[in-house]
Specification:
Blueprint: E1 9-10, H1 45-52, H2 63-74, H3 92-105, E2 109-113, H4 119-130, E3 136-141, H5 144-157, E4 163-167, H6 173-177, E5 182-187, H7 193-203, E6 207-216, H8 222-233, E7 237-242, E8 250-255
Parallel strand pairs: 1-4, 2-3, 2-5, 3-4, 5-6
Antiparallel strand pairs: 6-8, 7-8
Length: 257
């Protein structure tokens, strides 16, 4: 085992995420190339992992934590004074996928870029806790309001001991330089093409040689679809995309060995 310092908060001035180059792809987070039908699926990716392993081990088992993650997605009171944004939280399938990957992969360090109100954060933190507090979660969020919501929901779930929260731009070199090499990196931040590509270029350098990257909204957002295609065409990563219930989609990227 190894020791960790108490979680701390990196305080910097919040700035715009930066979406100046809109020539290729609109920096509109809700933009869809075409309406996406709901996928034909009645189970989550976490449950699919259970088909091949012990199904009871790869779904979040703490009912209190599950309820917090669910309400982050569905209950406007869990978004504080910005209830109109409640549906922006990661959906059930994404939380289950992250939980199951962490339980199987047992990463020492995880980076999350973009927390919003903490639905995905809570799911990942529970997985680390269920692994015996073996690893730590490093969360980067540019919006202090969002970071405060995430901190609050981690405290409600009793999981703040496994998470470090960093306030600032995901491109701040001081912040990025202080992050550890990680076995899993979950990116759900700037959804413009330029911003998402910058995050890819920055955080792929933080990925351990056999690590995994996971992007959210890669089916719903055209700019992210394009980026995933370009990444796979580069030959550096293999990719696996799957639709989620709201048509948002997730993509797993693994560096080619």
């Amino acid at each position: 085992m190894y020791a960790f310092k108490r979680p701390y908060y990196w305080i910097t001035k919040s700035k715009s995420k930066g979406t100046s180059n809109q020539l290729l792809y609109a920096a509109n987070y809700n933009y869809r190339e075409a309406p996406m039908p709901r996928p034909v699926s009645n189970v989550s990716l976490g449950e699919v992992f259970g088909w091949f392993f012990d199904g009871s081990s790869f779904l979040p088992g703490d009912s209190h934590v599950n309820e917090i993650a669910r309400r982050c997605r569905t209950d406007s009171t869990y978004s504080g004074q910005r209830p109109q944004r409640v549906s922006w939280s990661a959906e059930r399938e994404t939380g289950h996928a992250l939980y199951s990957i962490i339980r199987l992969w047992r990463p020492r360090n995880i980076i999350e870029v973009g927390t919003y109100n903490g639905a995905s954060t809570v799911s990942m933190a529970q997985a680390l806790h269920d692994n015996g507090d073996f690893g730590r979660l490093h969360c980067v969020e540019i919006d202090q309001y969002n970071l405060d919501l995430t901190r609050h929901h981690l405290e409600m779930a009793g999981l703040s001991h496994v998470a470090y929260l960093y306030h600032g731009s995901s491109q701040d070199p001081r912040l990025v330089g202080g992050l550890p090499e990680s076995e899993l990196i979950f990116i759900d931040g700037d959804h413009s093409y330029d911003g998402a590509r910058r995050d890819y270029e920055t955080y792929s350098k933080k990925l351990s040689p056999r690590g995994l990257m996971m992007y959210h909204d890669t089916i719903k957002i055209m700019a992210l679809r394009q980026l995933m295609q370009e990444i796979t065409q580069s030959g550096d990563f293999d990719a696996f995309s799957v639709a989620t219930s709201d048509g948002d989609g997730i993509t797993l990227l693994r560096r080619r060995w």
